């Protein structure tokens, strides 16, 4: 199941099936998509309950699927909801992230690991691969060489190697502290940065949109900017 609560201006979303290492069923993917898309807070902190972040798709569900393509599309929609949400999504990864759990994390704006975090795409070992946007986002984030090594081998990355490859942004003891740090920024600036960095249009269109967003923020925060000039 997916639990949500609002805490000090941050939407906290918890994947809460610890007995199944937070493996995701279709109903969980739907609930996850809704929890993030409906967030009013400028920052959402996504985490897993218990000793794992997320084991990915529930393999009992996968083994019984009548329509595997629809299940893959449901996972893609959940990931796209995270990537496209107005809220900035900080994913805190403690323990194992496997398969679809990696792909859900890939859709987040920031992936913050604890030293105990580990990552793998083990599907290749039993004839599958990451179909919740994994083949799209992995090379963008890790680079093609590291992405292919990670996905083709099925090997486990520890937190340090995940940091080296760019799979995570930081390794800290308390990932929630990074969500708090991000939430200290101005909400409209956070939204503008996410929109611009996530923009997949051509460079010229992105740069025009970037300049427009910058001008809007200068006008909105003129007093704050002026106050910093003497610092």
From TrEMBL:
InterPro entries: ClpP/crotonase-like_dom_sf (IPR029045), Enoyl-CoA_hydra/iso (IPR001753). It holds the Pfam family ECH_1. SUPFAM superfamilies: ClpP/crotonase. This is Enoyl-CoA hydratase. Belongs to the enoyl-CoA hydratase/isomerase family. It comes from Halorubrum salipaludis.
């Amino acid at each position: 199941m997916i639990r949500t609560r609002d805490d000090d201006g941050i939407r906290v979303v918890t994947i809460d099936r610890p007995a199944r290492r937070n493996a995701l069923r279709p109903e969980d993917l739907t609930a996850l998509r809704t929890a993030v898309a409906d967030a009013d807070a400028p920052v959402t902190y996504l985490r897993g309950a218990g000793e794992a972040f997320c084991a990915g798709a529930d393999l009992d569900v996968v083994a019984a699927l009548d329509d595997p393509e629809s299940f893959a599309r449901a996972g893609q929609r959940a990931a796209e909801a995270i990537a496209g949400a107005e809220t900035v999504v900080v994913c805190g990864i403690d323990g194992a992230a496997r398969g679809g759990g990696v792909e859900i994390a890939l859709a987040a704006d920031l992936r913050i690991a604890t030293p105990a975090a580990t990552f793998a795409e083990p599907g290749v070992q039993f004839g599958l691969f990451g179909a919740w946007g994994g083949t799209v986002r992995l090379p963008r984030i890790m680079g093609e060489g590291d992405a292919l090594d990670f996905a083709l081998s099925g090997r486990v990355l520890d937190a340090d190697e995940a940091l080296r490859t760019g799979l995570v942004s930081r390794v800290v003891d308390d990932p929630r502290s990074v969500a708090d740090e991000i939430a200290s920024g101005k909400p409209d600036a956070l939204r503008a940065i996410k929109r611009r960095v996530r923009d997949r249009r051509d460079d010229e269109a992105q740069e025009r949109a970037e300049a427009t967003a910058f001008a809007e923020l200068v006008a909105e925060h003129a007093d704050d900017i002026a106050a910093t000039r003497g610092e």
